Structure formats: structure tokens, C-alpha cells
Hints:
Layout: H1 5-18, E1 29-34, H2 42-45, E2 51-64, E3 76-90, H3 95-113, E4 125-132, E5 138-152, H4 153-156
Parallel strand pairs: 1-2
Antiparallel strand pairs: 2-3, 3-5, 4-5
Amino acid sequence: MAQTALRNLYDTLKTTLEAVLDDNSDQVVSYFSWYNQNKAGENFQAIIRDTAIFFELVNIGWQTINGVINDAYSNQEQGTCTFNLHFFRKSLKDDNLATIELIDKVNEVHRDLLILSGENFSCIQRISEQQDTVHDNVIDWVVTYKCQLYEQATEINRTAVSPSLSISKSIGYD
Length: 174
């Protein structure tokens, strides 16, 4: 079975981000996972050593590519996927310096994402970024991205009718 576009996007991001190195050849990202607000709690803060990134799915707006749902030739879908990457960094020292260091890491990661695309998703585009300031001792920098996802029903569940059907009938006249 083919991997879904969302799973491919997540796995590609994880592999790419875990390989990002800074100017000193040190790993930029120490942890990557799905986002859950509970992970920003005190127990989580204790395990952050450096920069952790969390993937948060915001929305996927799906549409049939040809606009015809029942046609075997148009069983393909395209979706605009919007997602956030939460960059977490523990801040026990000067908040100014920690925030600047985090922004530098966000930019290092973003450079690696500029040309990233996959088998069933398009290049990723940055939409916006902002700081979430509701966490104690943790800086949460949120960057919103979007890309196009592509799915084809025959690859996902193999239930679509093959488009190569032919019908023939001979009619004789007396």
C-alpha cells in the first residue's frame, strides 16, 4: 500500500529536520514529534535539552482534481495542507539571548525546508511566524507552512475501477 501524503510529509520532515546541522556541525534539532499542548507542561520542560520541534496539523482542504467524484479517471485528490512547526527551547538563562539563539535555529531549519518536496507533496512555503508566550521557562516559536498534498484512490485503497475498460458488441443485419 502506498504511503499517504500526510504520512510522507511528516516522515520527510522528521528525517530532514533531524539531519540539520549548524555552522559548528552540531545537530540543530534534539527532538521531533507530533504537537500536543500537554507536551509544553512542566514534565516536558524537564526533558528539553536544546531545540525541540513539534508538528501540528492545522488543516487540509481536500478537493477532487477534476471535480468529478464518480469518474474513474478523476479519483485523485489535491489538498492544501497548513501546518505549524513549534520550535521549543528551554530558557533558564537570559531570555533575550535564548530567543535570539532560537530564531537563528529556526532560520537554519527554514533554509533546509525551502526546497523540500516529496513523492506526493509539493514544495513547502512559509506563511507566517510568531512567538507563543504562555509557557514558563520555555520559548515556543511557531512557524506556519503550507504545501499541496496529492492522493490517488487506486493507490490508497485499490477500490477504484480501472480506466482501461472496453466494451464491444457485434450486431448482424439480415
